[in-house]
Amino acid sequence: MKRIFLIVLDSCGIGAMPDAASFGDVGVNTLAACATSDKLHIPNMIAAGLGNIDGVSCLPETAAPAGAYARLTERSNGKDTTIGHWEIAGIVSENPLPTYPDGFPEEVLAPFRAATGRGVLANAPWSGTAVLDAYGEEHMRTGDLIVYTSADSVFQIAAHEQIVPLDKLYEYCHIARDLLKGKHGVGRVIARPFVGTGKGAFQRTSNRHDYSLEPPAETMLDAIKEAGLDAIAVGKIHDIFAGRGDTEYVYNKSNADGMSHTADYAKKDFHGLCFVNLVDFDMVYGHRRDIDGYANALSQFDAWLGEFVKTLGDDDLVMITADHGCDPAYTATTDHTREYVPLLVLGKGVKPVNLGTRKSFADIAATVTDLLGVDFETPGTSFAKEIL
Predict the structure, then answer these.
(1) Which domains does the chain have, with CATH numbers?
(2) Over 90: is that where the pLDDT of 378 sits?
Protein backbone atom coordinates (compact mmCIF):
# COMPACT_ATOMS: atom_id res chain seq x y z
CA MET A 1 0.00 0.00 0.00
CA LYS A 2 1.13 3.55 -0.72
CA ARG A 3 -1.27 5.57 1.43
CA ILE A 4 -3.25 4.64 4.52
CA PHE A 5 -5.83 6.96 6.08
CA LEU A 6 -6.46 5.95 9.70
CA ILE A 7 -9.46 7.86 11.09
CA VAL A 8 -10.34 7.75 14.80
CA LEU A 9 -13.97 8.60 15.57
CA ASP A 10 -13.06 9.72 19.07
CA SER A 11 -15.12 7.76 21.64
CA CYS A 12 -17.31 5.76 19.23
CA GLY A 13 -17.46 2.54 21.27
CA ILE A 14 -19.65 -0.40 20.33
CA GLY A 15 -20.46 -2.06 23.65
CA ALA A 16 -19.15 -2.80 27.13
CA MET A 17 -16.05 -4.91 27.46
CA PRO A 18 -16.17 -7.83 29.93
CA ASP A 19 -14.27 -5.80 32.55
CA ALA A 20 -16.35 -2.62 32.10
CA ALA A 21 -17.93 -2.87 35.57
CA SER A 22 -14.51 -2.58 37.20
CA PHE A 23 -14.18 0.78 35.45
CA GLY A 24 -17.56 1.90 36.77
CA ASP A 25 -19.38 1.23 33.51
CA VAL A 26 -22.38 -1.09 33.33
CA GLY A 27 -24.35 -1.78 30.15
CA VAL A 28 -22.64 0.97 28.19
CA ASN A 29 -22.82 1.13 24.39
CA THR A 30 -22.11 4.38 22.57
CA LEU A 31 -23.22 3.20 19.13
CA ALA A 32 -26.42 1.62 20.47
CA ALA A 33 -27.31 4.89 22.21
CA CYS A 34 -26.90 6.74 18.91
CA ALA A 35 -29.04 4.14 17.15
CA THR A 36 -32.01 5.21 19.29
CA SER A 37 -31.94 8.63 17.61
CA ASP A 38 -33.80 9.44 14.41
CA LYS A 39 -30.78 11.62 13.53
CA LEU A 40 -28.67 8.55 12.78
CA HIS A 41 -28.35 7.85 9.07
CA ILE A 42 -25.14 5.99 8.26
CA PRO A 43 -25.74 3.90 5.11
CA ASN A 44 -22.10 3.92 4.04
CA MET A 45 -20.73 2.49 7.28
CA ILE A 46 -23.57 -0.04 7.39
CA ALA A 47 -22.71 -1.06 3.82
CA ALA A 48 -19.07 -1.39 4.88
CA GLY A 49 -20.09 -3.93 7.54
CA LEU A 50 -20.57 -1.94 10.75
CA GLY A 51 -23.75 -3.88 11.57
CA ASN A 52 -21.96 -7.17 10.87
CA ILE A 53 -19.32 -6.67 13.57
CA ASP A 54 -19.37 -9.13 16.47
CA GLY A 55 -21.79 -7.99 19.15
CA VAL A 56 -23.36 -5.14 17.16
CA SER A 57 -27.11 -5.74 17.23
CA CYS A 58 -28.34 -2.14 17.05
CA LEU A 59 -27.77 -1.86 13.28
CA PRO A 60 -28.86 -4.02 10.34
CA GLU A 61 -26.41 -6.47 8.85
CA THR A 62 -25.61 -6.31 5.16
CA ALA A 63 -25.46 -9.43 2.99
CA ALA A 64 -22.44 -8.26 1.01
CA PRO A 65 -20.21 -5.94 3.08
CA ALA A 66 -18.07 -3.51 1.12
CA GLY A 67 -15.09 -3.77 3.45
CA ALA A 68 -13.29 -5.74 6.12
CA TYR A 69 -14.58 -5.29 9.66
CA ALA A 70 -13.75 -6.26 13.24
CA ARG A 71 -14.39 -5.65 16.91
CA LEU A 72 -11.26 -4.49 18.75
CA THR A 73 -10.51 -5.22 22.40
CA GLU A 74 -8.51 -2.78 24.50
CA ARG A 75 -5.72 -4.66 26.27
CA SER A 76 -4.45 -1.60 28.08
CA ASN A 77 -5.59 -0.75 31.59
CA GLY A 78 -7.55 2.40 30.84
CA LYS A 79 -10.32 4.07 28.90
CA ASP A 80 -8.80 7.40 27.99
CA THR A 81 -7.62 9.11 24.82
CA THR A 82 -3.90 8.80 25.48
CA ILE A 83 -3.82 5.11 26.34
CA GLY A 84 -6.30 4.29 23.55
CA HIS A 85 -4.26 6.05 20.88
CA TRP A 86 -1.00 4.65 22.21
CA GLU A 87 -2.43 1.15 21.85
CA ILE A 88 -3.68 1.89 18.32
CA ALA A 89 -0.09 2.95 17.59
CA GLY A 90 1.41 -0.20 19.09
CA ILE A 91 1.90 0.30 22.85
CA VAL A 92 -0.08 -1.72 25.40
CA SER A 93 -0.17 0.02 28.79
CA GLU A 94 -0.34 -2.49 31.62
CA ASN A 95 -0.55 0.18 34.32
CA PRO A 96 -3.16 2.92 34.40
CA LEU A 97 -2.13 6.55 34.31
CA PRO A 98 -2.75 8.43 37.60
CA THR A 99 -6.20 9.88 38.28
CA TYR A 100 -7.33 12.32 40.95
CA PRO A 101 -10.89 11.71 42.17
CA ASP A 102 -10.26 14.02 45.14
CA GLY A 103 -8.41 16.70 43.19
CA PHE A 104 -4.68 17.35 42.91
CA PRO A 105 -2.50 17.32 46.03
CA GLU A 106 -0.71 20.40 47.31
CA GLU A 107 2.64 18.97 46.16
CA VAL A 108 1.34 19.48 42.61
CA LEU A 109 -0.55 22.75 43.08
CA ALA A 110 2.01 24.66 45.15
CA PRO A 111 4.76 24.66 42.51
CA PHE A 112 2.15 25.32 39.82
CA ARG A 113 0.88 28.41 41.64
CA ALA A 114 4.44 29.57 42.25
CA ALA A 115 5.45 29.16 38.61
CA THR A 116 2.34 30.82 37.14
CA GLY A 117 1.82 33.50 39.76
CA ARG A 118 -1.90 32.72 39.77
CA GLY A 119 -4.26 31.06 42.19
CA VAL A 120 -6.27 27.90 41.54
CA LEU A 121 -10.05 27.40 41.53
CA ALA A 122 -12.14 24.18 41.52
CA ASN A 123 -9.47 21.43 41.83
CA ALA A 124 -11.87 18.49 41.59
CA PRO A 125 -13.43 16.27 38.93
CA TRP A 126 -15.91 18.38 36.96
CA SER A 127 -17.93 18.40 33.78
CA GLY A 128 -16.15 20.81 31.45
CA THR A 129 -19.22 22.99 30.98
CA ALA A 130 -20.53 22.87 34.56
CA VAL A 131 -17.19 24.00 35.98
CA LEU A 132 -17.40 27.20 33.92
CA ASP A 133 -20.79 28.06 35.39
CA ALA A 134 -19.51 27.33 38.88
CA TYR A 135 -16.22 29.22 38.71
CA GLY A 136 -16.16 31.30 35.51
CA GLU A 137 -17.27 34.57 37.09
CA GLU A 138 -14.84 34.21 40.01
CA HIS A 139 -12.06 33.50 37.52
CA MET A 140 -12.93 36.70 35.66
CA ARG A 141 -12.85 38.72 38.91
CA THR A 142 -9.63 37.27 40.32
CA GLY A 143 -7.62 35.94 37.37
CA ASP A 144 -7.24 32.63 39.22
CA LEU A 145 -7.06 29.61 36.93
CA ILE A 146 -9.81 26.99 36.85
CA VAL A 147 -7.96 23.70 37.35
CA TYR A 148 -9.99 20.51 37.23
CA THR A 149 -9.85 16.85 36.27
CA SER A 150 -12.24 14.01 35.40
CA ALA A 151 -12.28 10.24 35.73
CA ASP A 152 -9.49 10.28 33.15
CA SER A 153 -5.82 11.07 33.70
CA VAL A 154 -6.02 14.78 32.89
CA PHE A 155 -4.98 18.14 34.36
CA GLN A 156 -7.24 20.70 32.71
CA ILE A 157 -6.76 24.47 32.85
CA ALA A 158 -9.72 26.65 31.87
CA ALA A 159 -9.31 30.38 31.36
CA HIS A 160 -11.31 33.14 29.67
CA GLU A 161 -9.59 34.30 26.49
CA GLN A 162 -10.00 37.96 27.52
CA ILE A 163 -8.54 37.35 30.99
CA VAL A 164 -5.70 35.01 30.04
CA PRO A 165 -4.44 35.37 26.44
CA LEU A 166 -4.07 32.09 24.57
CA ASP A 167 -0.27 32.21 24.44
CA LYS A 168 -0.17 32.71 28.21
CA LEU A 169 -2.63 29.82 28.80
CA TYR A 170 -0.48 27.58 26.61
CA GLU A 171 2.58 28.68 28.59
CA TYR A 172 0.83 27.65 31.82
CA CYS A 173 0.08 24.26 30.27
CA HIS A 174 3.76 23.78 29.41
CA ILE A 175 4.59 24.61 33.03
CA ALA A 176 2.08 22.01 34.25
CA ARG A 177 3.37 19.43 31.79
CA ASP A 178 6.93 19.89 33.06
CA LEU A 179 5.73 19.50 36.66
CA LEU A 180 3.48 16.48 36.07
CA LYS A 181 5.96 13.66 35.67
CA GLY A 182 6.86 10.50 37.55
CA LYS A 183 4.09 9.43 39.94
CA HIS A 184 2.05 12.47 38.86
CA GLY A 185 2.61 11.83 35.14
CA VAL A 186 -0.96 12.41 33.94
CA GLY A 187 -1.80 11.41 30.40
CA ARG A 188 -2.69 14.92 29.27
CA VAL A 189 -2.55 18.52 30.33
CA ILE A 190 -5.36 20.27 28.46
CA ALA A 191 -5.82 23.97 27.72
CA ARG A 192 -9.56 24.78 27.92
CA PRO A 193 -10.04 28.39 26.77
CA PHE A 194 -13.54 29.83 26.91
CA VAL A 195 -15.47 33.01 26.17
CA GLY A 196 -18.74 34.56 27.34
CA THR A 197 -20.08 37.19 29.68
CA GLY A 198 -21.31 35.20 32.64
CA LYS A 199 -22.95 32.09 34.06
CA GLY A 200 -25.08 30.38 31.43
CA ALA A 201 -23.29 32.24 28.63
CA PHE A 202 -19.80 30.77 28.92
CA GLN A 203 -18.69 28.64 25.98
CA ARG A 204 -15.50 26.70 25.36
CA THR A 205 -13.69 27.63 22.14
CA SER A 206 -11.94 25.55 19.50
CA ASN A 207 -8.53 26.77 20.73
CA ARG A 208 -8.11 23.74 22.99
CA HIS A 209 -4.64 22.17 23.02
CA ASP A 210 -3.55 18.87 24.55
CA TYR A 211 -0.08 18.35 26.04
CA SER A 212 0.50 14.64 26.35
CA LEU A 213 2.94 12.53 28.25
CA GLU A 214 5.55 11.29 25.80
CA PRO A 215 4.94 7.66 24.76
CA PRO A 216 7.11 5.25 26.80
CA ALA A 217 8.23 3.29 23.74
CA GLU A 218 8.45 3.54 19.96
CA THR A 219 5.14 3.84 18.14
CA MET A 220 4.19 3.10 14.56
CA LEU A 221 4.59 6.83 13.85
CA ASP A 222 8.24 6.68 14.94
CA ALA A 223 8.82 3.59 12.81
CA ILE A 224 7.15 5.07 9.71
CA LYS A 225 9.11 8.30 10.04
CA GLU A 226 12.39 6.47 10.58
CA ALA A 227 11.70 4.44 7.42
CA GLY A 228 11.63 7.69 5.45
CA LEU A 229 7.90 7.65 4.80
CA ASP A 230 5.29 10.29 5.57
CA ALA A 231 3.56 10.28 8.96
CA ILE A 232 0.88 12.96 8.81
CA ALA A 233 -1.07 13.93 11.95
CA VAL A 234 -4.51 15.55 11.65
CA GLY A 235 -6.37 16.95 14.65
CA LYS A 236 -5.03 16.26 18.13
CA ILE A 237 -2.81 13.35 17.01
CA HIS A 238 0.26 15.61 17.19
CA ASP A 239 -0.57 16.52 20.78
CA ILE A 240 -1.48 12.97 21.87
CA PHE A 241 1.98 11.73 20.88
CA ALA A 242 3.73 14.80 22.33
CA GLY A 243 4.80 15.84 18.83
CA ARG A 244 6.82 12.68 18.36
CA GLY A 245 6.87 10.67 15.15
CA ASP A 246 4.92 12.82 12.73
CA THR A 247 6.50 14.44 9.69
CA GLU A 248 3.83 17.15 9.47
CA TYR A 249 0.66 18.05 11.32
CA VAL A 250 -2.42 20.22 11.25
CA TYR A 251 -4.98 20.94 13.98
CA ASN A 252 -8.77 20.78 13.58
CA LYS A 253 -11.31 23.34 14.72
CA SER A 254 -14.17 20.85 14.28
CA ASN A 255 -15.02 17.47 12.79
CA ALA A 256 -15.87 19.20 9.52
CA ASP A 257 -12.49 20.92 9.53
CA GLY A 258 -10.75 17.60 10.16
CA MET A 259 -12.61 15.90 7.33
CA SER A 260 -11.66 18.79 5.05
CA HIS A 261 -7.99 18.45 6.01
CA THR A 262 -8.15 14.71 5.34
CA ALA A 263 -9.70 15.27 1.92
CA ASP A 264 -6.97 17.80 1.15
CA TYR A 265 -4.26 15.27 2.02
CA ALA A 266 -5.94 12.73 -0.25
CA LYS A 267 -5.24 15.13 -3.12
CA LYS A 268 -1.52 15.08 -2.33
CA ASP A 269 1.05 12.56 -3.50
CA PHE A 270 2.40 11.26 -0.20
CA HIS A 271 3.64 7.82 0.78
CA GLY A 272 2.80 6.61 4.25
CA LEU A 273 0.16 7.22 6.93
CA CYS A 274 -2.38 9.99 7.46
CA PHE A 275 -3.52 9.57 11.10
CA VAL A 276 -6.71 11.52 11.87
CA ASN A 277 -8.62 12.23 15.08
CA LEU A 278 -12.15 13.68 14.97
CA VAL A 279 -12.74 14.84 18.54
CA ASP A 280 -16.22 16.41 18.38
CA PHE A 281 -17.90 13.02 18.91
CA ASP A 282 -16.29 12.89 22.35
CA MET A 283 -15.82 16.51 23.38
CA VAL A 284 -19.00 18.09 22.04
CA TYR A 285 -21.51 15.23 22.22
CA GLY A 286 -20.33 12.27 24.29
CA HIS A 287 -19.28 14.09 27.45
CA ARG A 288 -22.33 16.35 27.19
CA ARG A 289 -24.58 13.29 26.87
CA ASP A 290 -26.15 14.61 23.67
CA ILE A 291 -27.54 11.54 21.90
CA ASP A 292 -29.06 13.37 18.93
CA GLY A 293 -25.96 15.51 18.49
CA TYR A 294 -23.69 12.45 18.51
CA ALA A 295 -25.95 10.61 16.05
CA ASN A 296 -26.08 13.61 13.74
CA ALA A 297 -22.27 13.93 13.82
CA LEU A 298 -21.96 10.27 12.81
CA SER A 299 -24.40 10.91 9.96
CA GLN A 300 -22.34 13.86 8.76
CA PHE A 301 -19.17 11.76 8.84
CA ASP A 302 -20.89 8.94 6.99
CA ALA A 303 -22.01 11.27 4.19
CA TRP A 304 -18.46 12.60 3.89
CA LEU A 305 -17.03 9.05 3.91
CA GLY A 306 -19.23 8.05 0.97
CA GLU A 307 -17.57 10.74 -1.14
CA PHE A 308 -14.08 10.32 0.31
CA VAL A 309 -13.70 6.64 -0.63
CA LYS A 310 -14.37 7.57 -4.25
CA THR A 311 -11.14 9.58 -4.24
CA LEU A 312 -8.94 6.68 -3.11
CA GLY A 313 -6.45 5.22 -5.58
CA ASP A 314 -5.66 1.57 -6.20
CA ASP A 315 -2.88 1.61 -3.57
CA ASP A 316 -4.88 3.46 -0.89
CA LEU A 317 -7.08 2.31 1.94
CA VAL A 318 -8.95 3.88 4.83
CA MET A 319 -9.32 2.43 8.33
CA ILE A 320 -12.04 3.74 10.65
CA THR A 321 -11.88 3.00 14.37
CA ALA A 322 -12.20 4.58 17.86
CA ASP A 323 -10.11 4.91 21.01
CA HIS A 324 -12.69 4.22 23.79
CA GLY A 325 -16.39 4.84 24.42
CA CYS A 326 -18.34 7.82 25.75
CA ASP A 327 -21.93 6.58 25.86
CA PRO A 328 -24.22 9.62 25.56
CA ALA A 329 -27.05 7.68 27.20
CA TYR A 330 -25.06 6.69 30.29
CA THR A 331 -26.10 8.91 33.18
CA ALA A 332 -23.96 7.45 35.98
CA THR A 333 -21.07 9.72 34.89
CA THR A 334 -20.21 12.09 32.06
CA ASP A 335 -16.84 10.42 31.51
CA HIS A 336 -15.47 7.93 29.02
CA THR A 337 -16.81 4.39 29.02
CA ARG A 338 -14.89 1.12 28.79
CA GLU A 339 -15.97 -0.37 25.44
CA TYR A 340 -14.94 -2.41 22.46
CA VAL A 341 -14.33 -0.26 19.39
CA PRO A 342 -15.15 -0.89 15.72
CA LEU A 343 -12.79 -1.31 12.81
CA LEU A 344 -13.81 -0.81 9.20
CA VAL A 345 -11.31 -1.11 6.33
CA LEU A 346 -12.20 0.15 2.87
CA GLY A 347 -10.31 0.40 -0.40
CA LYS A 348 -10.19 -0.94 -3.93
CA GLY A 349 -7.76 -3.67 -2.91
CA VAL A 350 -9.54 -4.65 0.31
CA LYS A 351 -11.27 -8.03 0.52
CA PRO A 352 -14.57 -8.01 2.44
CA VAL A 353 -13.98 -10.25 5.43
CA ASN A 354 -15.06 -10.59 9.05
CA LEU A 355 -11.87 -10.24 11.09
CA GLY A 356 -13.73 -11.27 14.24
CA THR A 357 -12.95 -9.94 17.71
CA ARG A 358 -9.31 -8.88 17.83
CA LYS A 359 -7.26 -9.07 21.04
CA SER A 360 -5.78 -5.58 20.88
CA PHE A 361 -6.08 -2.16 19.29
CA ALA A 362 -2.38 -2.71 18.50
CA ASP A 363 -3.43 -4.99 15.63
CA ILE A 364 -3.91 -1.73 13.72
CA ALA A 365 -0.26 -0.71 14.21
CA ALA A 366 0.93 -4.17 13.20
CA THR A 367 -1.20 -4.06 10.05
CA VAL A 368 -0.38 -0.47 9.05
CA THR A 369 3.36 -1.04 9.26
CA ASP A 370 3.01 -4.40 7.53
CA LEU A 371 1.10 -2.84 4.63
CA LEU A 372 3.68 -0.05 4.31
CA GLY A 373 6.63 -2.45 4.47
CA VAL A 374 7.98 -0.90 7.69
CA ASP A 375 9.74 -2.97 10.37
CA PHE A 376 8.03 -2.51 13.74
CA GLU A 377 7.74 -4.74 16.80
CA THR A 378 4.39 -4.53 18.54
CA PRO A 379 2.16 -6.73 20.73
CA GLY A 380 -0.42 -6.55 17.95
CA THR A 381 -1.10 -9.12 15.23
CA SER A 382 -1.25 -8.02 11.61
CA PHE A 383 -4.35 -8.84 9.57
CA ALA A 384 -2.83 -7.53 6.32
CA LYS A 385 -2.88 -10.89 4.56
CA GLU A 386 -6.52 -11.41 5.50
CA ILE A 387 -7.76 -8.21 3.89
CA LEU A 388 -5.78 -8.14 0.64
Answers:
(1) 3-97+213-387 (3.40.720.10), 106-212 (3.30.70.1250)
(2) yes
